[in-house]
Design brief:
With about 180 residues, this protein is mainly α. The chain has one domain (about 1-165): Arp2/3 complex 21 kDa subunit ARPC3, CATH 1.10.1760.20. The chain has six helices and no strands.
């Protein structure tokens, strides 16, 4: 019976990764935001994974998305994706633990802002220059609506996600099926 759960877990992770890659592809067709910033639509899938599948799965998805970014857009984009994705998930998890009533909207905006902050930090490290004073105001102004859009997408896609993982009953899986703060 343990193998059945392992196969389900792998299948669910594969399905979520394909959703992430599909959303990233759709997003690459949209008009570019200032500073080559993206909306972060695929973050809705990693947020779902964080709350309903588990932290390890969400971190694995963020890492796999970064590997995909590495191959598609190069090592700098891959490092920035990894730094932003991991820091964002950690911030969302910490905020959700500290503030159990926080809504997806608040958590998503906090995640987007943390993602942007981490990406600026990675870029600053890569070019050995402090880019915070220049990029932080713009990335903050753009991160708030991007985080809000991710929260709306998650809320709209929640019935689909629930349907996909409805029969998933793996040990250690989150039992909560309600949105934080709902």
């Amino acid at each position: 019976m343990g193998k059945t759960f392992a196969v389900r877990d792998i299948a669910l992770m594969g399905l979520m990764l394909s959703m992430i890659l599909m959303l990233a592809a759709v997003e690459s067709m949209l008009p570019s935001l200032p500073l080559n910033m993206r909306f972060g639509l695929s973050n809705a899938v990693t947020m779902y994974a964080l709350f309903f599948v588990g932290r390890r799965s969400a971190l694995a998805l963020a890492a796999l998305k970064s590997v995909f970014t590495l191959f598609m857009r190069g090592p700098i984009a891959g490092l920035m994706s990894l730094g932003g994705g991991i820091c964002s998930l950690c911030a969302i998890a910490a905020l959700a633990s500290a503030w159990p009533g926080a809504s997806y909207f608040i958590l998503s905006i906090a995640g987007a802002l943390t993602h942007n902050l981490a990406q600026i930090a990675v870029a600053s490290w890569l070019v050995s220059t402090n880019l915070m004073p220049v990029y932080l105001p713009v990335m903050t102004a753009l991160g708030i609506p991007a985080g809000a859009l991710t929260a709306v997408l998650l809320r709209v896609a929640m019935p689909v996600f629930k349907n996909i993982s409805a029969r998933r009953d793996a040990p250690g899986a989150a039992k909560n099926t309600e949105a934080p703060g709902a």
